[in-house]
Amino acid sequence: MAKILAVDDSLAMRKMVKGILTEEGHEVVTAADGAEAMKFARKESVDLVLSDINMPNMSGISLVSRLRSLDGYKFTPIIMVTTEDSDFKKDKARSFGATGWLQKPYSPDRLLTAVRKVLG
Q1: Strand ranges for 1-120 from DSSP E
Q2: Is residue 105 reached through a cis peptide bond, with omega within 30 degrees of 0 on the bond before it?
Q3: pLDDT confidence of residue 19
Q4: CA distance 90 to 61
Q5: How many separate domains does the chain show?
Q6: Are 62 and 34 in contact (CB under 8 A)?
Q7: Strand order in the sheet with 78-82
Q8: Which one of 7, 14, 100, 116 has the fewest beta carbons within 10 angstroms of its own beta carbon?
Q9: Which pLDDT score is estimated for 108?
């Protein structure tokens, strides 16, 4: 199965995502914000990144941009997982390299469908 980095400033969201994806057989690493995620990404690669947009220290959109500058993350799928629904934010995230978008709140099935879709 895949190694997934889940980035969200909400501990409850990180625990929920990790639980759903671990039960599906994935290895899940979590980070509380973009800065923490970047520290991890500079050392290790993953098969997929799930990131909230609105976080302290470094937003999800900034994280996408910085991840895309790393050799190991140029083609890694990145799904934005957020309450945001503005077309402007979606377009901005895509322009920086986001692969997809998952609107909160979502069901475990919707999360798993999105993950399966981008991982192939």
Answers
A1: 3-7, 27-31, 48-51, 78-82, 100-103
A2: yes
A3: 98
A4: 10
A5: 1
A6: yes
A7: 27-31, 3-7, 48-51, 78-82, 100-103
A8: 116
A9: 96
- Backbone region of residue 97 per phi and psi (left: phi > 0; alpha: psi in -120 to 50; beta: other values): left
Select from 61, 98, 102 the least CA-distant residue to 85: 102
Give the tens place of pLDDT for each residue, 4-19: 999 999 999 999 999 9
Side-chain half-sphere CA neighbours of 33 within 13 A: 7
Q: Are 91 and 68 in contact (CB under 8 A)?
A: no
Neighbours of 61 (CB within 10 A): 23
Residue 24 is predicted with a pLDDT of 96
Q: For residue 11, give the CATH number of its domain.
A: 3.40.50.2300
- Residue 119: pLDDT band by 50, 70, 90 thresholds? very high
The single-letter code of the amino acid at 52 is D
DSSP state of 96: T
The whole domain housing 31 covers: 3-119
